[in-house]
């Protein structure tokens, strides 16, 4: 099977590389040190249309596929940047595109495609529920004209830099549903109109991820904020997870290639004991092993993306791509840190920042142990472990 790229896909890669080159490693280091949102970079990506590649042309988007979107995010991270600042806009809008009303699509998708509206926040995780999404407590109470939502979310990234947020809430209490995955609904929240009903408290983390804890108190939203049918929010959520997994895998692959390029370059130029350190197998082998793992993960990523674009089931492939790519990028980061030695800890070499950033992907947006549980149960047909 041949995994070659089309001329258009190669052009996309080159164009994204050229844009990313305008935002060098010092730009990203400054954002990290100041815990600043990379506003200029996100604006440039939006204006160039790269964050709207998955939006159909009829709504002003690129009308392209998952393979093309994956290339965009891979190149951001391969340049030494971070796609986390804008990746959610590429897959979160899928819930509106696939399940939203025509009014919602026409009202928001053109603006998202043009970069004038940002949909980068996804309110799912809660402090007590964690990965057990069915245990969320945020509740949307129906009123005559819409809903009143009260609850709490955690690790909601980019909320303070988004115009819209997709929010998952219960519309039927857990104890009243026959299946625990029922009774949850998705809402499209206009954060510009939420006012004091949503209080965002930033969470200080080891990476510059602009993540927040949200306190939602009597937030009134119209009926038109509901995405799709009431009570089917969990199935809509699952529908978009394959895209998320593939795109996150692409960022990991970009990270892995950045680490390997930096490590090999340093290993060739760093002279210790009158010889380049890259001549030592103890330096060579971790880099070579990581390179092999990244290349293998890339194949699974492309398989998952190709199946996604063909409309074929790709849950196993998407999950395995995320697992393989996040483990490979971490191995590459470890190899780079070991190769640079003490200099790897110095911020001026940029390795420690990328090392911190890529560690996240082994935990989020889904922990790798849960990926293994998924493969064991749904692919290998072993008994459910939780």
How would you characterize this protein structure?
- This protein is α+β, with helices and mostly antiparallel strands.
- It has three domains: 7-118, Orthogonal Bundle (Butyryl-Coa Dehydrogenase, subunit A, domain 1), CATH 1.10.540.10; 120-230, Butyryl-CoA Dehydrogenase, subunit A, domain 2 (Beta Barrel), CATH 2.40.110; 235-379, Butyryl-CoA Dehydrogenase, subunit A, domain 3.
- Helix content is 48%, strand content 15%.
- The chain contains eleven helices and ten strands.
- The strands form three sheets. A four-stranded mixed β-sheet has the order 1-4-5-8.
- Strand 6 (198-202) and strand 7 form a beta hairpin.
- Helix 9 (315-340) runs antiparallel to helix 10 (351-359).
- It starts with 6 loop residues before the first helix and ends in a 7-residue tail after the last helix.
Q: Pick out the low-confidence regions.
A: none
Shape designation? globular
If strands are numbered along the chain, what order do they take across the biggest sheet? 1-4-5-8
Beta percentage is 15-25%
Ends apart, CA distance between termini: 37 Å
Mind telling me which CATH architecture of the largest domain this is? Up-down Bundle
CATH C-level of the largest domain:
Mainly Alpha
Structural category: alpha+beta
How many strand elements? 10
The H/E string reads HHHHHHEEEEEEEEHEEHHHH
Oligomer: single chain
